[in-house]
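Hi team,

As requested, here is the filled-out complex form for the guanosine-5'-monophosphate run. I kept the field names the same as last time so the parser does not choke. Let me know if anything looks off before we queue the next batch.

— J.
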Amino acid sequence: MSGPSGAGKGTVVGGVLARRPETILSVSATTRTPRPEERDGTDYRFLSQESFRALAEIGELLEWAEVYGHLYGTPRRPVEDALAAGHDVVLEVDVQGALQVRESLPDAVLVFIKPPSLEELEARLTGRGTENAGTLARRTEAARGELEHVDRYDHVIVNDRADDAVTELLRILDG
Ligand code: 5GP
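And here is what came back:
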């Protein structure tokens, strides 16, 4: 799953996990500092640059990329174990990450979640209150860039109403 921050990926994925508990959500590693409500090991594995790079070097990351000046990556082992046990695994990754996943796991289904408009996205990011003005501008700009890659995805969901977006994602998973 990809989509600009503020497009509602977290809400939509949360809704899907609640309705389909056998689906596994991958916990990414990142060098970003935690937000106040975030917990290490649940929201992300928060790592130093050094530890992150060490994981990447020994091939323990399925994909990784620099996003908004920080490193983010998917630990390989939990994904492979969950797939081997017959679960569907959801990754929330940026466009660079999604394309790397498609290379290493050709069965991967790439889904892009779009906000109804860039104006709506900006309003959501402002409302969330976690971003300062500089970060907000950077994220809106990055969103513009991400939206240019939407045609590389297998499915595009416009997240206008979260319930509808959840239903659509469930349909894709069941397919
Ligand atoms: P945030 O800092 O808001 O938690 O995440 C910012 C962005 O980082 C997300 O929208 C997503 O695109 C990207 N991201 C999060 N985890 C990963 C990951 O494991 N790999 C990659 N490539 N991108 C990620």
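Two things worth flagging: The chain has two domains: 1-23+88-175, 26-87. Residues 16 and 169 are 7 Å apart (CA to CA).

Thanks,
J.
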